[in-house]
């Protein structure tokens, strides 16, 4: 006998048409039995498809949940990185300000020292000049 429900029905119809069954009640019983088997097969197919659909839906939900968790973990890592980089940036700004202040004070001191050096050079020149002229002291060294 053929295996699929449709081919089984065709086979039974051929038997009935060819009068291979003597009693019509026997053929009706067989067709009803075959129809109930066909209905059961159809119901079984629907149940299997529903189970697959449910498994697929659960699998998709779990996959979406994992994806959301990965996304949240990545977002948390990025937020932590932002905080770390802001702190690092603030430290670098503080160091830059300190170096800038140090540079300003060094430049002021350098300018002051250059002025003192210039004054001392001028004094040395005056001393040399006065030594050659009468051995007198410059006005800065005279007693009043």
Automatic annotation (TrEMBL):
Q: Which Pfam families does the entry mention?
A: bZIP_1 (PF00170)
Q: Which domain of life is it from?
A: Eukaryota
Its organism's taxonomic lineage begins at: Eukaryota, Viridiplantae, Streptophyta, Embryophyta, Tracheophyta
Provide the Gene Ontology terms for cellular component.
Answer: nucleus
Enumerate the UniProt keywords alphabetically.
Coiled coil, DNA-binding, Nucleus, Transcription, Transcription regulation
> Entry's CDD domains?
bZIP_plant_GBF1
| Gene3D superfamilies to which the protein is assigned, alphabetical | 1.20.5.170
Instruction: From the Swiss-Prot or TrEMBL record, give the protein name.
Output: BZIP domain-containing protein
**Localization annotation:** Nucleus
Q: Which PROSITE patterns match?
A: BZIP, BZIP_BASIC
Q: From which residue to which does any coiled coil extend? A: 61-123
Q: Name one GO molecular function term.
A: protein dimerization activity
**Where is the BZIP domain positioned along the sequence?**
50-113
């Amino acid at each position: 006998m053929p295996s699929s429900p449709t081919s089984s029905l065709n086979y039974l119809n051929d038997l009935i048409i060819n009068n291979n069954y003597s009693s019509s009640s026997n053929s009706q019983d067989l067709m009803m039995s075959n129809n109930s088997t066909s209905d059961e097969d159809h119901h079984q197919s629907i149940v299997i498809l529903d189970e697959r659909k449910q498994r697929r839906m659960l699998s998709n939900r779990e996959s979406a949940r994992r994806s959301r968790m990965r996304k949240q973990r990545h977002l948390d890592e990025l937020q932590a990185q932002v905080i770390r980089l802001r702190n690092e940036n603030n430290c670098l700004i503080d160091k830059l300000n300190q170096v800038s202040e140090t540079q300003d004070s060094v430049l002021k001191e350098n300018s002051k020292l250059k002025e003192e050096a210039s004054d001392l050079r001028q004094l040395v020149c005056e001393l040399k000049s006065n030594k050659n002229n009468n051995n007198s002291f410059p006005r800065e060294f005279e007693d009043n």
